[in-house]
Amino acid sequence: MKNITFSADEKLIEKARLKAAKEKTTLNEQFRDWLKRYASENDYRKEFEQLMEDLSYVNSGGKFTRDEMNER
After folding, report:
1. Can you tell me the distance from the alpha carbon of 58 to that of 34, in angstroms, rounded to the nearest whole number?
2. For residue 42, is pLDDT > 80?
3. Most distant CA atoms of the chain, gap in Å
4. Which of 5, 24, 34, 46 has the fewest C-beta atoms lying within 10 Å of its C-beta?
5. How far apart are CA 8 and CA 12, in angstroms?
């Protein structure tokens, strides 16, 4: 694992550490989780776009009113 250094306001860091402690985790663990989500964000977008393309053949038959959509 590679170490990196960030700069941030001391009070903000302390506040974040306290919040992490309440959640029974650490600021480092929270950052690693965030970094994974941030790095994979484009993957989710590509998957969504592919799904929409795969479903492009679906035709709902037009627009529906609120009442029509809520019929059971």
Report:
1. 35
2. no
3. 57
4. 5
5. 7
The token pair that represents 46 in the structure block: 């590509």
Report the C-alpha gap between 15 and 20 in whole angstroms. 9
**Residues 51, 57: Cα–Cα separation, whole Å:** 11
Tell me which residue has tokens 């484009």. Answer: 42
Q: Is the pTM of this model over 0.90?
A: no
Contact 29, 20 (CB under 8 A): yes
- What the block records as the tokens of 14 is 């302390």
HEC string for 10-64 = HHHHHHHHHHHHHCCCCHHHHHHHHHHHHHHHHHHHHHHHHHHHHCCCCCCCCCC
